[in-house]
Amino acid sequence: MAKRRGKIEAIESNEVFLKDGGEDFDYCVGQFFKDMVMRNLSFHTKRWYKENITVIKRAFLDLGHSLSPIDATEEMLKDVVFYCTEKLNNNPTTVNHRIRTMKQLYSFLYNESFIASNPAERLVKQKGKIEKIKPFTEDEIQELLSQPIKQEFVGFRDYTIMLVLLDTGIRLSELINIKVTDVSIDGGKIFVVGKGNKERDVMFQATTREQLRRYLKIRGEVHHDYLWVSQDNKPLARKTLQDRLKLYGERARINKRVSPHTFRHTCAKLYITQGGDIFSLQQLLGHSSLEMCRHYVSLWGSDLQKMHRKYSPVESIIKR
Question: Which of 157, 209, 265, 287 does the annotation list as catalytic?
């Protein structure tokens, strides 16, 4: 039997009935994930939500709160935030992931009429320390690129991957999912599918082009179309690549995070400090807005000062 929403205003203006199932947490979560499938969200996005919801459910149970979404209150959700902060000792970034997940979940349930009100509507994110992005220096890049043993397949592959990461700034998920047919050697570009299934082309230049050409020849024909392969010809796994890059960082004695994301930041910095504009950088990196690109500019102001000394409009005119 469908239930009524409990708000008098809603009833007086337009009578709304609640769908069955709002009392069952697992059923509601299932509907939430079904909606993600309908919207064609990526596997990694769905996995991210699943990880957060698992923690949220555990918090509800440990706190003795009713799991039923129709019983959820703002205070209960605040208790979950406190639990994650104090009991699980999650950092602000992780806590904000939990908050974002609750806001998305309960907003969906409210909009789909499983619950009468949205208890997560007024939840606010925690303030956390904003860590300065630490891209690689040019010396560190040279050290990293010298680590793979290019006479062996794995080393040759990893060296090629590092060049692609540095030249294109693509995300790990984008890199791993590249197919051979996505690569245009002559066109100097790779077709990638980014966040929100947004499609774009990323560019590479002569050095990367030649390395990719050689890699494709060495890779040869295998039973699938993924560009990056393991020694046993299976598609390269995310964790394998992350571990390989970490190992090269340790061998090169680099005292900062060595990951695909660090390559992405390094690509952005070099692009800006060597004369690239933030509008084309936004397209290259696949950002939905200019906010992150502006953040890059603010972080590397000293480098931009050097650029301005070189390219100052006034200086170029006066010194003629």
Answer: 287
Return the half-sphere exposure (C-beta side, CA atoms, 13 A cut-off) of residue 229.
20
The model's pTM is 0.66
Q: Which of 3, 44, 134, 195 is catalytic?
A: 195
- Measured CA distances, 135 to 139, 144, 207, 275 (Å): 11, 13, 21, 17
239 assigned to active site: no
Alpha carbons 138 and 249: distance in angstroms, whole number: 14
pLDDT digits (tens, 9 = 90+) for 91-106: 888 999 999 999 999 9
For domain 138-314, the CATH class is mainly alpha
State the span(s) of the chain assigned CATH 1.10.443.10.
138-314
At 150 the three-state DSSP class reads coil
Q: Which percentage of the chain shows pLDDT scores above 90?
A: 60
